[in-house]
Design brief:
Elements lengths: L1 E10 L6 E6 L2 E5 L5 H10 L10 E2 L5 H4 L2 H8 L3 E3 L1 H11 L5 E3 L5 E4 L2 E7 L8 E7 L2 E6 L7 H7 L4 E5 L4 H5 L5 H8 L7 H15 L2 E6 L8 H14 L7 E5 L8 E7 L7
Helix pairs in contact: 8-9
Bound molecules: zinc ion (ZN) (2 copies).
The site of one zinc ion has 7 residues, from helix 2.
Length: 274
Amino acid sequence: MSEEFTVYCLASGSSGNAILVTAADASLLVDAGLGVRTLKRLLEARGVAPSSLSGILLTHEHIDHVKGAIPFARKYNVPLVGTSGTLQTLFAQENRDAPHRILEAGDEGGIGAFGVRSVPIRHDAADPTGFRVSFGSCSLAYATDTGIVTPEFREACRGTSLIVIESNHDVHKVQFGPYPESLKARILAQNGHLSNSDACDLILSHTEEHGPVCVWLSHLSEVNNTPRMALNYWKKRFRAEGHKTSPAAVEVALRDVPSLVYRTHSQSVQLALF
Ligand SMILES: [Zn+2]
Ligand SMILES: [Zn+2]
């Protein structure tokens, strides 16, 4: 039996992040950094009723990832899923809680029809994570807002159909750009954000070890990057390494509007009935 596995990028960047994953009749969100009404509209336009979501996976409590999380979870009775550090900090900062389920970094659990692994990353938040979301033979590895590609995330990318990885900035643009020195240091720190170069390092090492893959460069900075710059950086890198054709299908997620859609089919074994 074959069922469609679809990933939609609804928004990706410092003004809001949300990824919708659907498979068969099931769906979930990774981050909810848009307002409730916007999320509702974007879900319904894709045939997903807000109350039918199996959960909202939260990477960390920064506003661009959680703006609509609590009101959405309360209104539609959908559980927020995250580490205890993320959820406690979020509930404290908004002074109210919501239906939730704790999934600590490194743990795996079933969220509706999906298998979800919470993957340790490094960022200046309480207890941030990336995620690996799987359904049948399909999966997605997701990490934005991390200063380094952790060994755990590298491992989570193994065998995935789609890697969504942060490509926040061009290092030179940060260094010579308008930000105050303290903010530059924060962005470039081990618990800051990944550069175009960091994202390319991951793609190249992953494809060398595991073969072709589909990648979305995401969470681009408005000030220190552009979609063209991120993509050109990638093209330059794979040419410099002597590849004639790209070992990866690399696309760029846009900041403020829904952009990329990834579709594939999950093969699941149909058991013969006797
Ligand atoms: Zn962010
Ligand atoms: Zn953040």
